[in-house]
Amino acid sequence: MDALKQELKEFIIEQLNLEDIEVKDIANDDALFGDGLGLDSIDALELIVMLDKNYGIKLTDPKQGRAIFESIDTMAAYITANRTN
Amino acid sequence: MKKVYINSIASVSAQKTFDNAEFLNDFIDHEGIEIPVVNPNYKDFIPPAAARRMAKGIKMSIVASKIALQEAELEAVDAIITGTGMGCLRDSEKFLSTLIDNDEQYLTPTSFIQSTHNTVGGQVALELQCKGYNFTYVHSSNSFESALVDAKMQLAANEENTILVGGVDEIGEHTFKLQELVGHVKVKPVKVSELLNSKTSGAVYGEGANFFVLSNEKQESSYAQLMAVKMYNTLPKEALSETIKAFLSANELQVEDIDLLVLGCNGDIEFDDYYDILGEGGFNETQQAYYKHISGEFNTASSFGFWLASKVLKLQTLPDLVKLNDIKSSDFKTVLLYNQYRGENHSFTLLKQC
Amino acid sequence: MSKGVAITGMGIISAIGNNVEENYQSLIESRKGISRISKIKTNHVNDIMVGEIAFTNEEIAAQLGLKSDNSFTRTALLGCLAAKEAVENAGIDNVDDYKTGLISSTSVGGMDMTERYYYESFENKAVQKYIESHHAGDSTQKIAEELGINKSFVTTISTACSSAANAIMLGARLIKSGELDRVIVGGADCLSKFTINGFKTLMILSDTYNTPFDENRKGLNLGEAAAYLVLESDALVQKENKTVLAYVKGYGNANDAYHQTASSENGDGATLAMKKALKVANYNAADIDYINAHGTATGNNDLSEGRAIIRVFEDTVPDFSSTKAYTGHTLAAAGAIEAVYSILALQHNVVYPNLNFKTQMKAFEITPELQLKKKPIQAVMSNSFGFGGNCSTVIFSKEP
Question: Which domains does chain C have, with CATH numbers?
Fold first, then answer.
């Protein structure tokens, strides 16, 4: 699980071009959207593609993303429970 | 009808032009078939959170916009009008190659959003929080001139008081290769100082962003008055001289009144003869300048010519590296620009000292 | 200076008809043009529905009398057909008899050919002719050439899904200022894999018929179309004793300055655009008899637009409907398509039904018109909004 969380942080920083942020800056329970990391609805769509590409999870409704992408913890839990690859 | 002034200028180009205190002081004699821009420090102008998703064209435009507003001493403008031939080309290519290479899978929205032609105008509005009129023109070498025509019309009619007008284009790797394929780009690299001596077909490509605040109120920072802009989708060589004379006389001017003719020649022997018709014909006793060895060729390169002409009118000096002939005007009061690309989309732009 | 801006001709091709008459018949008979995609091979074939035009490129090229080695993209082909109908409808024999310009708009441009030959261009000389057709101005240049517009003001606007409304707006201003006596304005966009996949990444494509202003709307259907209007000055209309179809009475353009793609929750930009248009028209809100809404059937647009309409019209929201359920969202062409529909509404005194509507939205109490409604109509408002915060409104009227 910790390896997955590390992987997710690295991916988020790289894919979403968070230039000034390092893995250690993101706590597992930090809010990714809004006041936390400051991600927005376009980032959410980027993350949905990531779920599909890296873990074989297909979301059809972007609204589903809101709960899943709340924090690194929630993402990791969802991926662990639903991954197909 | 109100007069229209150029109250500030800003340029990101292949030379260090983003500093308005300088005027082509240190010339970089690039050699190649495409020339890169001298990048300003984007972080000085754009917060990292906003910059992270921005294409190069957007970044260049936001820097140029902010410099232009600063120089015009404005916090905001009434409207934003952008010209771009191709928009943020790199992102369009990124989206399309991923689409084809991955067979329509795993595509992400960011590059699609940035491939929309009006993405620059939208992002500049977002950065400046400008809720006013916002247009984007995408008509090849007349993209920037369309923006000028629009802005001038609204300012003259006093519909708006300050308008940010700009031209921006990027080089895209794949599109560049396609343009090489059809002979639009020079085959052999040239030193840009020797551009007009190459005696070969094709152009040296470039990219950049040039933005201006136009206003119907003159102020201390004003560079020049924008007298007229006229566009022609087609213009046969044999009609060029009479058309430009008619344009001048519509503005109550004659050839002798022009102190400087700024030409868009790009060293392509197949199409530079349009410029020769004027340079060696009716305007052979007029001082002449050119600029595409500095900017490179792109759909909105003429916005760099507009930058050059504005600067000349304000500073009353013409750098040697843009001189096209040996004629010297005693002073610069009226400047005429002429541009076309591959024989299509011609424009005349007339500026006056203010 | 011209006080009025007269519309003297119009032309259109869309998924519900190949000319003005066919489009009108489909509108009043509630016939939609939405189907599964057939002309583009895409993996998303079962996930989307589109408003596709039946003609093949070859069929349109033959109608236009083009040679087989032409480099027309589908955008250019559709644009030429519609623009020619408009010019013919305006009874113009010679475009050179008055200062005539062309303002077209597109968002797809030549992408249909570029995506087809992206790599093949390097190996196959025969398809290299399309390289120069890629840029957005190419279809406009070709339409100008087909119409015989030379040495004139010709330009292209691309402000995403509001593009053609802006072309109409610029044209009206050029007529008013006296820069031009006559200008052909409109837009064209064909379907492409690029846009299908682009909108797919935004997750705003519906897998079934789009349902504007419905609580359970699932997103938009993309469509392809082209439409053009001929705008003429008072002086020209008077001198030539022309029949006037309608007038461009007002227009407004504003930016939401809120988000790269989405509209603000309260529709700030849309509100500003509608208010500006009313002001230019010198109208009160009560002067509008029908609103042809942008109504794309995305969650975001219909909420934002509905709220903006309420902000502008308050307690007296006029009849409104979206015609996107008929044609799909035709992107840059939409503003011109819906301009033609607005003018037809004025001419025939009808409000078109908002098809596919089942459930009232919870966010507000306004409901689109659901039946074909006959009533006297003096003025129609048409909204077009796009990415990048672009919001545009045009008002068409019977009287100058």
Answer: 5-240 (3.40.47.10), 249-397 (3.40.47.10)
Residue C252 CB neighbours (<10 A): 25
Contact A42 B52 (CB under 8 A): no
Q: Which residue of C has its CA nearest to A47?
A: C201
pTM for this prediction: 0.98
Helix axes C57-64, C74-89, angle to 10 degrees: 40
Number of domain units in chain B: 2
| Mean pLDDT score across all residues of chain B | 97
Check C201 against B345: CB less than 8 A apart.
no
How confident is the model at residue B270, as a pLDDT? Answer: 97
Is C1 or B218 the better-scoring residue by pLDDT?
B218
Q: Read off the amino acid at residue B13.
A: S
Residues of C in contact with B153 (CB under 8 A): 173-174, 177, 179
Quick check: B52 and A17 CB within 8 A? Answer: yes
Residues 291-320 of B with CB under 8 A from A: none
Tokens 């003001």 appear where? Answer: C153
**Predicted ipTM beyond 0.85:** yes
At B85, the pLDDT band (50, 70, 90 cuts) reads very high
pLDDT at C334: 98
Q: Model confidence over C206-253: pLDDT tens digits?
A: 999 999 999 999 999 999 999 999 999 999 999 999 999 999 999 999
Distance from CA of B328 to the nearest CA of C (A): 33
Q: Alpha carbon of C98 to those of B250, C79, C164, C182: distances in Å?
A: 18, 22, 23, 7
Burial of C266 (0-12, 13-18, 19+ CB in 10 A): middle
Q: Which domain holds residue B320?
A: 225-352
Cβ-defined contact of A20 to B106 (cutoff 8 Å): no
DSSP character string of C274-287: HHHHHHHHT--GGG
- Tell me the average pLDDT across B284-309: 98
Domains of chain A: 2-82 (1.10.1200.10)
Query: Looking up tokens 């623009």, which residue turns up?
Result: C83
d(CA B128, CA B120): 12
User: Which of A30-39, A73-82, C91-100 bottoms out in mean pLDDT, i.e. has the lowest?
Assistant: A30-39
pLDDT of residue C1: 66
Q: Does B276 share its domain with B207?
A: no
Same domain assignment for residues B190 and B287? no
Rounded Cα distance between C60 and C181, Å, is 30
* Calpha distance C135→C138 (Å, rounded): 6
Task: Give just the sign of the alpha carbon dihedral B242, B248, B253, B254.
Answer: negative
Q: Do B172 and B250 sit in the same domain of this protein? A: no
Residues in chain C with pLDDT values less than 50: none
